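The instructor's notes for this session suggest beginning with a concrete chain rather than abstract definitions. Hand out the sequence below and ask the class to guess, before any prediction is shown, which regions might be ordered.
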Amino acid sequence: MDDIQHILKDLYIISHFNMSLFDTDFNLVASYPNYKTPFCALIEKSDGFKYCQQYDQDAFLKAKETGQIYIYQCYFNLYEACVPIYTYGVLSGYLMMGQNLTTSPIDRKIIEEKALPYVKNPDLLNNAIAAIPVHSKEKILSFASIVDVCAKYLTLTNQVESKNEQLPKQTMAYLQQNYASNISIQKLCDIFCCSKGTLINHFKQEYHVSIHQYLSNLRLEKASELLHNPNLSIGEIAITVGFNDTNYFTKAFRKKYHCSPLEYRNK
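After discussion, reveal the predicted structure:
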């Protein structure tokens, strides 16, 4: 983390862009400088702060979806950018730069108009806006490219601590809650933002069973419970626990319990 803090500091020194690192739950992990700009500090105390949070979270989700840097303007028209960081193939956080105004007088007018309803003191607001770093749009976009390179470096060197240790538990919890739905390895990878190899290996290392075998056993255990209900047919039970093929369900059930579902019910 010390190395990451140095990177954030160096980026700030050469650019005067606030630099931050967030985890996958959008919690601040590190930043430089470790204080907010006067404008953001004002807004944080107002009802307008909820819009800032929503815009940032939407940006993080967009970066997560594309896997690329996402440059945007926040609710108050400040330029910001965020880029996802991965550790051993798993999304581990976001590197973020902000908050900047362009040299355009239009941008300054917009931020004044949007912020005034939340900051009743015009003089205080103007002083806070005056303290916001101002750069040309070209410089903002250029520095965003540098931030992107730094994020790729952090990904290649796996410096950001990931939540790999939580991945197997998160996967198991998802399977237990959604075993009846159509689940594939690719779908799980999309949900947890990781590669197939990472997902399969971490789950197997933690539980000593494959995801496919665990899901199959879970479905069969749920089916054995439902077999106590005489009002449900074998086909209905198969579909209820996630088997679309009754014949395959019967074959898998016999392999696990050494009898057919009907024989199990009769016992």
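Then share the key points. The chain is about 55% helix and 15% strand. The chain has a mean pLDDT of 90.
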